[in-house]
UniProtKB/TrEMBL annotation:
Domain of life: Bacteria
GO biological process: lipid A biosynthetic process
Catalytic activity: a UDP-3-O-[(3R)-3-hydroxyacyl]-N-acetyl-alpha-D-glucosamine + H2O = a UDP-3-O-[(3R)-3-hydroxyacyl]-alpha-D-glucosamine + acetate
Active site per the UniProt annotation: H286
Residues that, per the record, bind Zn(2+): H96, H259, D263
Lineage of the organism: Bacteria, Pseudomonadati, Pseudomonadota, Betaproteobacteria, Burkholderiales
Keyword Hydrolase: yes
Function text: Catalyzes the hydrolysis of UDP-3-O-myristoyl-N-acetylglucosamine to form UDP-3-O-myristoylglucosamine and acetate, the committed step in lipid A biosynthesis.
UniProt keyword Hydrolase, yes or no: yes
Annotated source species: Paraburkholderia pallida
Cofactor(s) required for function per UniProt: Zn(2+)
Gene (name only): lpxC
Protein's UniProt name: UDP-3-O-acyl-N-acetylglucosamine deacetylase
Amino acid sequence: MRTPAGWEGTEGTLARELLMAGHGLHTGRRVQVRIRPVAEAGHGIVFRRLHAGRQVTTLRADPALRVAQPLCTMLRAREGASGSTNAGAGVRTVEHLLASLLVCGIDHALVELDAEEVPILDGSAAPWIEAIRACGRTALARPKRFLRVKKAIVVADGTGAQRREMRVEPCVRYEISVRNDLKGFGDMLWQGDLTPEVFAREIAPSRSYGRVKWALPAIVAGYVKRTPILRGARLSCTASIVGNRVIGGLRMPDEFVRHRVLDLVGDLALAGAPLLGRVSALRPSHEMNYRLLSALLADADAWEWAECAA
């Protein structure tokens, strides 16, 4: 197949190591990340958690290792799971980094971190895009692989104003249409041809967001249930909503729906390659994103791997 416009035609890895530090949105803990180049065929994106310099667990970015968590995507080792070394250990909030690696053409890398959660940085993917581009990309002598959608898959939940629906169908490009609504801000729609440049310019700067009045009870409930939720939320890393306004303002009028696109791209990146398909989403969430990907991969007639011509 011909390489879709804007995408690299070969697999790639980083040209040099990337170092980044920050705190986790949900755990609030300080974390340092080192992303190492890997040229090995079939390696993919692999997370390695370290503690005091010793390995805790190694996890492939694989939908089979995804576990449901509030407000983020988490990978967790399971007994007997491929690539895991410590059942129960995990890495959370991987979606922004996965989206950034995908659109920057980084197919193979080892992501080492010394805590459970990938740092939230400023709440967007823009710092990751900037850092990855600064490191550079090394093209590998292997054709780029895409996941080509062959037939429509639909998943839905709820009714009326609470209905959520996700659809993926065949397309020669990676197209996305996301519709979302938020009280006080109205209906928002973003749609377009997803390319690395479009993502970097229109999607990556959008931040995680939430209402302050909901965050405080969620933090308390998280402590009660021993599940970290929003312990690291700050004005510096979230678009914090009070009433019908955002403290400090929005980066763009429809920032909220663009961030839904960011999360969607990151969650679908667990497939291991960009899609050749049209994704349509009504009120997407991390759970619905996963349900769509899971339903697609479960139907062997709905998809196939496609490689770029040499």
